[in-house]
Amino acid sequence: MGVEEIKQVMETFSDMCDQAKACISGKPYVSSPYDFTKAAESVAATETKAQTAQEGHAAMDVDGCSSEELKAMVATCSKCRLAQGRHHAVYGEGVVKPLVMVIGEGPGADEDATGRPFVGKAGQYLDKWLAPIGLFRDKNVYIANIVKCRPPENRTPEADEIASCLPYVKRQIVLVEPKLILLSGATAAHALLGRLEGVGRLREQTFQYGSIPMVVTYHPAGVLRNPELRRPVWEDMKRIARMLSLPIPGRG
Ligand code: URA
Ligand code: SF4
């Protein structure tokens, strides 16, 4: 609102008050001679300041920021509706310059409660996939998600939520500098590959994020529900091991 508009609102309100006062007291109505210009200017200036701050935050470019800065931005982010229900935004964690950066879908209840990625049942299962090929979170793995805040009832994040959050994980990849990216589940695969085929198709191929190879596999929560997927996941782990020249158990 401009100064004139604000002034008009103030004058109208003041007038209404004067009329009410006159009505209650039974005295004749006299319009207040007060000049609202100064007050209106002050309100307009405050409004402009707030707007500039908001635009500055929205335009704050993730490019060029450090991981500490990025983490702080995520912690206070309200770019999408998922901010409303969260207890903790889950930034991601692990080793920098890891062999593998795993990217999942988004926090579940355990992650939302602790602020840490993949700590629930699915996360513990994911650890069991990685350990046999020598991958460990405290040694050579980094773990993150596509959306940083928990969707209600663990529903799949919606397209606009993914679009709002995607710049964070993209910057995170650049900062983390993994040797290989493992996209776990359809949400991560579709978001970062921009392709909509099923995981069954996508896992047969290798993609690139700049110079970093990207591989797709199923999501541990999906594999827990469907044990038939355990074999293809193990095939994917062996493929990753080959790509990274890691020893594969059971091979002499
Ligand atoms: N599922 C995910 O995709 N990410 C988590 O962090 C936990 C469960
Ligand atoms: Fe921000 Fe991502 Fe959380 Fe949405 S999900 S509020 S974009 S951090």
Task: Characterise this structure.
This protein has about 250 residues and is an alpha/beta fold. The chain has helices at about 5-25, 35-60, 65-75, 110-115, 120-130, 160-175, 185-195, 200, 220-225, 230-245; strands spanning about 95, 100-105, 140-145, 180-185, 205-210, 210-215. The mean pLDDT is about 90. The protein is built from ten helices and six strands; from the N terminus they run αααββααβαβααββαα. Helix 1 (about 5-25) packs across helix 2 (about 35-60). It is elongated and about 100 Å long. The protein has two domains: about 5-60, no CATH class; about 80-245, Uracil-DNA Glycosylase, subunit E (3-Layer(aba) Sandwich), CATH 3.40.470.10. The structure holds uracil (URA) and iron/sulfur cluster.
Output the keywords:
252 residues; alpha/beta; Uracil-DNA Glycosylase, subunit E; 2 domains; six-stranded mixed beta sheet; 10 helices; 48% helix; elongated; binds uracil; binds iron/sulfur cluster
Can you lay out the helices and strands and say which pair or pack?
Blueprint: H1 3-25, H2 37-59, H3 67-75, E1 93-94, E2 100-104, H4 109-114, H5 121-130, E3 141-145, H6 159-176, E4 180-184, H7 186-193, H8 199-202, E5 206-209, E6 212-217, H9 220-225, H10 230-243
Parallel strand pairs: 2-3, 2-4, 4-6
Antiparallel strand pairs: 1-3, 5-6
Helix pairs in contact: 1-2
Bound molecules: uracil (URA) and iron/sulfur cluster (SF4).
